[in-house]
Amino acid sequence: MLRLFQRNMALQGILVVAAVILLWLRPLIAPPPLDAGSHPAVLYGLLAGWLQPVPRLAVVLAMLLVLAEAVLCNLLLVDVGLASQNSLLPSLLYVLAASAGCHTLAPELLAAGIMLACLHRLMLRGTPLTIDAETICGATLMIGLATMFYQPAVCFMLSYLMVAAGYRLYSWRDWLVMLLGFAAPYVPLLAVLYLTGGVHSWWASTVQSLALPRLGFVNADPWTMIGGCVLAALLLWSLLVTVSQLGERPVLWQRNASTLLYIALGGMATLLYHHPFPLCTTLVAAPFAFAASRSLTAHFERHSVYGRAKRRAWIYDLLLVAAIIAAFLC
Q1: Distance from the CA of 244 to the CA of which of 44, 51, 86, 301 falls in 20 to 30 A?
Q2: Mind giving me the DSSP string for 152-169?
């Protein structure tokens, strides 16, 4: 099955679109109600208010957004040399992870799209092997904007701090630019809240929404729980495989792969705020698409010359099928 994603691009595109349609067919037929979510944020609250009377439109927009994000993720990975230009396997894996536990235009889905823009800023495409102040400001600005749709996206600041540590960005100027970038989206918001007298209530709701929740499977269907756990296991496996391969790659590849791994850690931190835990994998979709596509196809690169790839390919095909089934269960 994996060999399909090494050949005909048109067929691969059809498979990706078919996956989106099939995964979203059930909510499209019976669209779930749209609300501000468990952790409402300003911009998502406004968007949810507009779309509440037309829940089916929200599902259609979510489908299109998942497909667009999957294509953009694939293009980004190809652009920085982390994926083959002849394969849409990262797009399929992105669709599976982004659609799991997400049945309408959820805040996590919107935040995931913004984080793709953040990744675009942080990825290196050649020398010099570092990032400048403009990149720092742009990346943290995107994280700040993501929190206005989904407040737990602030966990991605931890990812940025790990990226900054990898590039040895310790000066006070770097810290100032980072804070200014993150705060920039909130300047007009706080100005409006100050004029309307809503600063105190906004701050109270923000602190309450970011209070560390109690973990637990709340009202989770057993099959949904199994699907989420399978995807989580595949994510952890693929991340471990990718980490084990870092030392074998050029420095540029290592830097970009490390950035995605740090983003994965921030995305996993946001899972603490999603109930039932950990069934929504939307915010780790991009790292999952990269790490899983590399892990599933690395076997062919290493062993095809020895004639062993064909004998072991069924194992990796089975893992891909397991990811597809898990996404449908969610």
Answers
A1: 86
A2: GGGGHHHHHHHHHHHTT-
